[in-house]
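Minutes, project check-in
Item: structure for the 352-residue chain
Input as provided by the requester:
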Amino acid sequence: MPCRCARPESCCSGSRLTGPSASGPRSHRYLAMPHFSAFVVVRDERILYERYAPDFGPDRPQPIMSITKTTLSLMLGRAVADGLVNLPEIGTGYAEATVSAVADMDNNDIFDPFFLSVSRYDEEAVTGWRLPREGAKERTYRSFVCGITGGDLTNRTGYALYKTGNPDVIGWIIERASGRALRDWLIEIVEAAGLEGCFHIIFDREGVPLVGDGACLTARDLARHGLLFARKGEGIDGRRVGDVTFIADTRRNLGPSMPEPRDWMRYSRMVKTDGTWLGHGGYGGQYMLANPHTGTVVVYFGVMENTSAPDPDPKFQGPLVKWPSLPRKFERVVGLLEHLPRNEQQSKGEIQ
C-alpha cells in the first residue's frame, strides 16, 4: 500500500538520529543484544531515534506476532461505542465467558498455547504454520476455536491466562455484530495509520485473517500503527478508528496482572498496560508501546535466540518495557534526542 502521509515526499526519508549522546547506556545495552533487529522511537509526526542491526533495515518487514491483537482493541472500542456487541455455535470453552473476560485474558478453558500438546500442534496446522498431522482433515481456524471446551470458566489464578484463541473469538464477535468483514475493519485501520509499506497478514482457508498473531510490518509502520493509540484512536487526516473513552477506560479499568516477574503489567481489552502506556509483545522478541500522555511510541524488534523459541528472558524484556514506561527516565532520553545539534541529526523526517 502506498504511503498516505500528507507530505509523502518527505515521509521518513533518511530520518535517523546519530551520535553517542542520543541513547545513553541503557539503550546501548538493548541495541547490543545478539537478538536485536530494530529500535524506533517516534513522537507525533517525527522519528526521534532509530537503529537497525547490520542485516536489517527500515524497509524490512518482520512478523509482529501477538502485537496484531492491538488491532482488535481498536475494533472493539468502536463496536462498544456504536452499541454493538452472540455466537450460538461457539464451543463450551467460550460460550459462557463474557466478552470482557475474553478480551482481558481472564477466562479459563482447556487450551494452553504454551504447552506442546496435540491442541497446540493442531492450532498451528490450521494457521498454516505446520502441515496437518498425517491423515488429519484440514480445518479452519474458527472450527478449531469452536472445538475448545471448558467447564468452570472462572479464572482463579489471580493473573491473566494467555489464550491465543481469545482474539479470534473477539474478532468473530465484532464481525458478526457489525455485519462487516474483519478484512474491511483492518483496511480502515491500515489507511488511518498511513502505512508506508504493506500490511501483510495470514488468512486461513476460509479467508479469515488471523487477528491474534498473523501480521507482518516494518518497524516504522508498526510505529505508525502505535500512533493510533498515542493519538487516542485518531489517524491521519482526522480519521478515527479508535474510541477515546474506550482507550481511557482501558488504561483506567485494569484487567488481571501478568504472571511474575511481569506482574506489574495488566492485560486489558487486547492490550497490555500499566495504567499509562498501552502496548503488546510479540512471540520471539517484538514489543510496541504507546504513551497517549506524551504522544510517544517505542518499537523493538528481536529474533529468536534459543531452542524453545519463547519470548526473550523476562530479565531482559521486563526492563526493556519498563524503561520507556518510566516517564522521567525515558523523557530525559527523548529530550536528548530532540535537542541534538543539527549536525548530529541527519534529518527529521515525518512519520504521520
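Outcome recorded: The beta strands are 36-43, 46-52, 62-65, 200-201, 215-217, 266-268, 271-273, 278-282, 286-291, 296-302.
No further action items on this chain.
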